[in-house]
Description:
The structure is a single chain. By secondary structure, the protein is an alpha/beta fold. Helix content is 37%, strand content 20%. Strand 9, helix 6 and strand 10 form a beta-alpha-beta unit. Helix 9 runs antiparallel to helix 10.
Amino acid sequence: MSRIVCVGEGMLELRQEDGEWRLGTGGDVLNTAIHLARFGHDVAFLSALGSDPFSDDLRQRWRAEGLDISLTLTHPQRHCGLYAISTDEHGERSFTYWREASAAREMFALPPSAAATRTAVSADLLYFSLITLAILPPDGRARLLELAAVVRANGGAVAFDGNYRERLWDTSAEAATARDAAIAVATIGLPTLSDEREISGSTEPGEITRRWHGCGCGEVVVKLGDRGCLLPSGEIQAAPASVRVLDSSGAGDAFNAGYLAGRMAGLSETEAALRGQCLAAWTLARRGAIPPRDDAAPYRLSVTGAPE
């Protein structure tokens, strides 16, 4: 069983369901971490929460999902972040955030972070995103990139998702600089065409792959939305049969988890991408960034990557 460390921010999630606001949990890296734990991997979440009751509730939720929260630090003054999801008639989502005082922003400034990073360097896989870098101050970003470089030097895999949120950056150029620094220490790249278009104006999937290769990342899968994905082989793998989209929240994070779980289990890039697509489709048909498990949840897949 692979040891995976995911670095990011976990928040409270507000979503409307049957006319009522319901409280859950989410965050791009957290979503992927929970999916990976559901696949049966040993997953630790490196982050920070407060000592408030809502933070305590999140710890309980994450632990119940099988996450190791020994690397989730406690900030003495700050608290957990909050976001609300709104969806249109097509299931496309928009977000409203309250995260300025989030404890996760200062995870690397807390004294226990030194011990946490010493633990994390032995991971078989380290995973983080551009949103992780966006919420961190410059010294925190440097600490995370240094951690990733050490994991890679130790022979571990480093996966990076170029998840771009314009409002978290002063300029797209600043985001592009941080993205390229992360690509340089990554072994697996998971960009999305729409994000790359916003940051760099890239509209051609092959151009994105070449850019990420040029920065130092060897294995790149470009997510193309309902068109499927561009595999490292250069082949476009179509998405599975269309589903009725209820909520697009977390679909890309689910793809990442399925792909990474497949690769850590020894599946080929094509098989792993199919695993990611199946999980993303299941997520799209349900509400919330992390839908509750049900009988259709594709966490047990055959060696071909298809649902059993």
